[in-house]
Write a structure and sequence with these properties.
The structure is a homodimer. Chain A is α/β, with parallel strands linked by helices. Helices cover about 50% and strands about 15% of the residues of chain A. Chain A has a five-stranded mixed sheet, with helices on both faces. In chain A, helix 10 packs across helix 15.
Chain lengths: ~425, ~425
Amino acid sequence: MAEVSFDYRNLTEVEGGVREAELDEIKPRLEDAAKELIESDLGFMQLPGTTRYAEASRALADDIRNSGATDFILCGIGGSALGPMALQKALNHPYYNQLSDRGGPRIHFAENTDPTTLGAILDVAEPESTWVNVVTKSGSTAETMANFLVVRGFLEDALGDGYREHTVFTTDPEEGFLKEISDREGIKTLPIQQNVGGRFSVLTPVGLLPAAVGGLDVDALLAGAAQCVEEVNERGAEHPAVVGAALHYLMDTARGRNVRVMMAYADALERTAAWFVQLWAESLGKDGKGSTPHAAVGTTDQHSQVQLFMEGPQDKVIEILQVENHPRDLEIPRAYEDLDGVGYLGGHTMAELLNVECDATQKALTEAGRPNCAIRLREVSEENVGYLLQALEVQTAVAGTLYGVNAFNQPGVEAGKNITYERMGRPGY
Amino acid sequence: MAEVSFDYRNLTEVEGGVREAELDEIKPRLEDAAKELIESDLGFMQLPGTTRYAEASRALADDIRNSGATDFILCGIGGSALGPMALQKALNHPYYNQLSDRGGPRIHFAENTDPTTLGAILDVAEPESTWVNVVTKSGSTAETMANFLVVRGFLEDALGDGYREHTVFTTDPEEGFLKEISDREGIKTLPIQQNVGGRFSVLTPVGLLPAAVGGLDVDALLAGAAQCVEEVNERGAEHPAVVGAALHYLMDTARGRNVRVMMAYADALERTAAWFVQLWAESLGKDGKGSTPHAAVGTTDQHSQVQLFMEGPQDKVIEILQVENHPRDLEIPRAYEDLDGVGYLGGHTMAELLNVECDATQKALTEAGRPNCAIRLREVSEENVGYLLQALEVQTAVAGTLYGVNAFNQPGVEAGKNITYERMGRPGY
């Protein structure tokens, strides 16, 4: 049972917050948006109830783990990397790749076309036991295909045609260049369902295969997400993820707060915030609309950005991601008890300090009249992360309806792509 | 000789950009601000010309490297971590900690009070050969001291009182709790000059010691920064770092562009952007003023945030950090030449693709009427990074004068701190 809760009190009760009357006014539109979401059978709402791809992902992950794989390189960018990275960061050991008893291969992400990064991955990977997972729905994403071609060469040098057995494509099952290559070379593929776009694809094999390779429980991820879908279907416009869409929309459009900060009070959720940045930015940033999602980490950013959040312009909403029970804890030993700026720490725990600081930041923001809200996870578990990701997707889709934009396209990236294709000599550009 | 250049054409020549008349109007204020910067002998402007702390840092780093240290844990937060992290990320191998021939200890950053992160560091560190570097000017930063107490216990379990020989404090040389502890226990210390604040401290031993421990050339870092200081002293309000302060100030205050994006087209500079976020946010975010610094990475964010930058609200300025010659390159092998969406990539290099995409994004932004600018580094070298960091500090200090705020304090973080101290039982709170 996922345990994720939403707390919007500091958005509605602070001065300058959203007023009851405004929420009442937008209620009919919100209800329509929720109804549309529920009734239109969107691909991403069906994913949690679809278990066969989880089974296929887990089976293939088992094969990879049992093959003695030392390295698993995911070539993907945007939605094809951010979801997988968010899951690993949230749910695996922070130094997973350096553990000797990790039980699976090291996992590397080649998302950028930066030769320094890919070169470093290839410096540490063992070519005979490296697998590559190429993730692109279209099968022609330039950055991903460039990374793939380099990794393919690296494997081919060691394995000859055997590189084919160490390659997995996650792509459109019906069309595209990866489909074509897999047909020719007999390369294993997992599907990205056609009605699911990249930034909503974390619960397709895009996210499920690397999660399973890393030893995560993909069934629990889907179960948490399924619980969210079920609750949204039941509660409609009353579900807090949906209510949040209205609040953030009003904060931007009626209050001029064009920056939406997501501040995670757990290093494990830092990449979840990065995943959300794409989701919100690329879904809503069009037609001159869309607030700017901005990621932060607590306590770290208390010593970096909180000054701006507290005393800068009133142009932000701060959303805190809080974890009640951290996956591990460390007691702070007693020492220097006569030094009053140090001694008080002994006997407390690190997690206690982290959560006290989280509460203190929310209180300080509220007292300074800075609108803020919180999403609280009982713990960082597969179920809760699955619920959270699904809830944020729901919120984004509903916000798209409120903004009156198509949340599922990204026309603004075509111009840059076309210039790149032309300069790189792609036929037809 | 550092080679860093600034290109503001796409801020002044695009529609909605800053007009010549506006620049002329602000000129006298900019000249005053530059004069104030140059004449007031600010601490951070003197650092590049001060070599004795670089020598002390290097000597201590040599001792650490020669001692057979396997792990070096830096406990610090905000300016005490962001600068050191930026230098390592920019100038060291991306998988430095995993290399067998790295020549120095693994370097770990314990910046947050997250037990999951610190626990993971302690899972991989070898206690008999671990060193800890505690970095806090005041000597009482709660997060840093909590991390220190835990690491101290970890070392004490293995080394008894010998932990003292493996500990280095980087702190105020005259006062504070760390000074007190070092006097009692004979712990090695390096100074943070009293006239330098945390976010301007990267070229004090705060940044220099970990840089030297990681094998970086700290003299070249300082030389690059010194070149910047010299050029600023010579050119005053004509220096492009100073001119940039006026442009960004005007874009915010006269054009309502309250989001300042720094988009690094090199993974190596991702943490430099994170360092800059603190510098700009904490220096300027006060009295209801200050634009929001927002970090992005190219090409990665072309598939995440560029949709918003291209078609979202006209509330941003995009600053690109571009690298002309990347430190290494990889040729993209020829393959699938009959598939027109793949085959064109073969024969190009990864760095070429990265730079073509960088140019394409700038062109696409400009053609869409989206103000943007660029800072170009000939390569990612110690000299160029030193120059860049110093230039951004200059720009921030000058922007503080234009905004009319004190760029060197951070009063907005006290409220949260006080609530934390009270709840944790610190005497006097």
